[in-house]
Design goal:
Blueprint lengths: L4 H7 L2 E6 L15 H14 L7 E6 L10 E6 L3 E6 L4 H9 L27
Parallel strand pairs: 1-2
Antiparallel strand pairs: 1-3, 3-4
Length: 126
């Protein structure tokens, strides 16, 4: 076993987790509502900006607990940002909000319209 924490922390600023869980159930799951297409949209957006795998990783996951019939679930770590109902069409806006239009704010938290981030800190220059 080799611990690779330092190496990954130096290489990656964030990781986008996309739920692709598919289950045989009466309940909605991301795999049934376009998760693979949403995953492809995330990868494409990051590749177009030269930010795929370094400094942003993309990983598929099992259930993130945000299942719905309206889209896939996405978490962005270590930012601790969680999104539900994400469709491929939502990806550009979501990732631009998180990382900036050119994926140049990898190490900053998302900023809401009122200028505050998810922790309530105000960022008037963003």
């Amino acid at each position: 076993m080799q611990r690779q924490t330092t190496r990954q922390r130096e290489r990656l600023g964030s990781c986008v987790l996309v739920c692709t869980n598919d289950r045989d159930s009466e309940y909605a799951c991301c795999g049934d509502v376009g998760a693979e297409e949403t995953l492809a949209a995330v990868k494409s957006w990051l590749r177009e900006r030269g930010a795929f795998w370094s400094p942003v990783g993309v990983t598929t996951t099992g259930c993130l607990g945000l299942c719905s019939e309206d889209g896939a679930a996405i978490a962005i770590q270590p930012r601790d940002e969680w999104y539900a109902d994400v469709t491929p069409e939502d990806v550009p806006e979501l990732l631009e909000r998180e990382f900036g239009p050119n994926a140049d704010s990898i190490d900053q938290r998302a900023v809401d319209a009122d200028g505050s981030d998810s922790l309530g800190a105000t960022h008037p220059d963003d």
